[in-house]
Design goal:
385 residues, seven-stranded mixed β-sheet, four-stranded antiparallel β-sheet, 15 helices, globular, binds 4'-deoxy-4'-aminopyridoxal-5'-phosphate
């Protein structure tokens, strides 16, 4: 193939391949146990696959309506109303997306103008900043500090101004495994009161909150729901990250704009999977049971590492566990996870990847969405260090 005949100026000069792809590839190349990229190593129930096969055989194989199949939007609307108390109109205020990544990107593309400021909390999930930059938005960073990674509301207040268009919130939070409290929500409501700021709420781990604590969705508070684009993902909830199906719920003025972009960057999401998910959602136990399911894995993982030389930080939600490793080796976090993957046979994510300046707090992230056998074998290797 000949070279492209002119210089290509990158729209994203600072961006390389995502850390999740890099670490999963390294884990594969080394035959390591992959606790890096966040996905389960076990399958969903057969019943879900049967529903997909049913709808495929029933001829549901052409384009779904642009906003998603009615049955699924209805099921999402019912769930949000029951759990969080806000009734979104299934027709106008809910859209099914090709995963949360597309939902987040589309929301930013639809609502952020060049020169607008967008506040993110750092360490920050890696897809937000490039999406903002592609729209010509200006990223403003609030810092979440170890070990509890709580938002500092004075710092956030100082970042807000007349150009602030959006605040991106992620709770439960990837990578820190922290959750926002009702006080955090009240602070956010106070700070945004009387402004035109949009809250983009990444709630993909909404059903993975531990120790009996409730998830503080934006949809729980009218003062926040009215300005929020709430995003979730079926990949996390039903152990099917590879299906890439999620949804967005927002007031209709925001959703109208969202759909203007959505219709041209995906148009619609695959039909039989949407219909299958609508059937599957009928049993609320399937998502309500997720917290206990993952809490058992968290507890097993933490107990198995309690005697190790890793220092475990709290894990209050998500399927991630942060750990300090200084007692094992004095290395930068990227060098440490490479060594861990190659020499110990366990892959993890360096948390510096979630900082713009590559700030290295010598903390790494493990994913415990794995079978007991996988977790036990990984922990045996980690305990030997
Ligand atoms: N946001 C967060 C915080 C995530 O952890 C992930 C995926 N791991 C996503 C968004 C993307 O979700 P999806 O796979 O549905 O695009
Ligand atoms: N969000 C997942 C994680 O944090 C990975 C998704 C991806 O690879 N983009 O590991």
């Amino acid at each position: 193939m000949p070279n492209f005949p002119a210089p290509v100026e990158s729209r994203l000069p600072a961006v390389g391949t995502t850390i999740f792809t890099v670490m999963s590839a390294l884990a594969g190349a080394c035959g390591a146990i992959n606790l890096s990229q966040g996905y389960p190593d076990f399958d969903a129930e057969d019943e879900l696959f049967e529903r997909v096969a049913h709808w495929m055989r029933a001829g549901a194989n052409q384009y779904a309506p642009m906003a998603g199949v009615a049955a699924l939007r209805g099921a999402i609307s019912d769930k949000l109303a029951t759990l969080y108390g806000t009734r979104y109109d299934a027709e106008r205020e809910i859209t099914v997306t090709a995963g949360a990544t597309q939902a987040l990107f589309t929301a930013i593309a639809a609502l952020v103008w060049p020169g607008d400021e967008v506040v993110v909390f750092e360490p920050v999930y890696d897809s937000y900043v490039p999406a903002i930059q592609l729209q010509g938005g200006i990223v403003r960073r609030a810092r979440l500090r170890a070990p509890d990674y709580r938002p500092d509301w004075e710092e956030v207040a100082a970042l807000l101004g007349p150009r602030t268009r959006m605040i991106i919130v992620n709770t439960p939070h990837n990578p820190t495994a922290t959750i926002w409290t009702a006080e955090d929500m009240a602070a956010l409501a106070r700070l945004t009161d009387g402004t035109g700021i949009v809250v983009l709420a990444d709630e993909v781990y909404e059903h993975i909150v531990f120790d009996g604590v409730r998830h503080e969705s934006m949809a729980r508070r009218p003062a926040l729901a009215e300005r929020s684009v709430v995003v979730s993902s079926f990949g996390k909830t039903y152990h099917v990250t590879g299906w890439k199906v999620g949804f967005v719920a927002a007031p209709r003025q925001l959703m109208d704009e969202f759909r203007k972009v959505h219709q041209f960057n995906v148009f619609t999401v695959n039909t039989p999977v949407q219909l299958a998910l609508a059937d599957y959602m009928a049993d609320a136990g399937r998502y309500l049971g997720l917290a206990a399911f993952y809490q058992a894995k968290r507890d097993r993982f933490r107990a198995a590492l309690a005697e190790s030389r890793f220092e475990l930080l709290p894990s209050r939600g998500t399927y991630f566990q942060l750990a300090r490793y200084r007692a094992i080796r004095e290395l930068p976090d990227r060098a440490f996870v490479e060594w861990l993957t190659r020499e110990v046979g366990v892959a993890a994510i360096p948390v510096s990847a979630f900082f713009d300046d590559g700030r290295d707090e010598q903390v790494i992230r493990f994913c415990f969405a794995k079978s007991e056998a996988t977790l036990d074998e990984a922990c045996a290797r980690l305990r030997a260090l």
